[in-house]
Amino acid sequence: MVEGVKLEESWKRALAPEFDNPYMSELRRFLISEKEAGKRVFPKGGEYFRALDLTPLDQVKVVILGQDPYHGYGQAHGLCFSVQPGVRIPPSLVNIYKELQSDLGIPPARHGFLEHWARQGVLLLNSVLTVEEARAASHQGKGWERFTDAVIRAVNEQCNGVVFMLWGSYAQKKAAFVDRARHLVLRAPHPSPLSAHNGFFGCRHFSRANEFLVSHGKEPVDWQLPERV
């Protein structure tokens, strides 16, 4: 395990071989050395696996893939696209809220804290689970990508009827192996202000996901976030 961090039991069983692999030992050493050098790493250690802790493997309904944690102080807490309460809503999440309103009539939330989704089976997974403060992509290529590939494989192989929302080419390449005979794969441009107008707006992924879930005998996701967190 990384720095003694615990992991939710269903994921711990599914991912046990990864923690015995040398690349995870190298990743652990890298993170320790970064902190010993006085570098600030986000999110905090207890939240590296927050997405997995909030969404057990057997409860996954939807997978949304991000790339890196936010690298500003106080933003990241282990869920892709989500920020802690009281933090300004990032531009990509603003656009996600715009699409939610267009698709389902849900007014934009006044905060960016997405744990309500995660607790309903929406796996909000970043490809890389840590980052150095103010240095975007600083922990890429250190082993996290291999670990999160294993997370996606576990969902692909052990779950049925999961919706994969793949926004942008990075997410689409990372989950290219997902079995479309067992799962619904929805693709769209990234919600970033640079690309949202190229097809993210109007993709209707949220309603399409719920229609698929209901057709497979599952509860739809309540995408409306609580006013207070």
UniProtKB/TrEMBL annotation:
Its EC number is 3.2.2.27. The keyword Cytoplasm applies. Keywords: Cytoplasm, DNA damage, DNA repair, Hydrolase. It catalyses: Hydrolyzes single-stranded DNA or mismatched double-stranded DNA and polynucleotides, releasing free uracil. It comes from the Bacteria. HAMAP family: UDG. Belongs to the uracil-DNA glycosylase (UDG) superfamily. UNG family. Excises uracil residues from the DNA which can arise as a result of misincorporation of dUMP residues by DNA polymerase or due to deamination of cytosine. This is Uracil-DNA glycosylase. It comes from Pseudorhizobium endolithicum. The gene is ung.
